[in-house]
Amino acid sequence: MVAFYSAPAILLYPVFLTFFGEGSMTVIVMAVVLGSVPIAINVAVGLGSIAAIWRKVGRSLNATGRQMFFKIMVPAAMPTIATGFRLGLTFALVGVIALEFLTYSGGLGKLVSWRYFVFDTDGVYAAIILVAVIAVLINMALNAMESRVRSRWE
Question: Percentage of the chain with pLDDT > 70?
Answer without folding.
Answer: 93
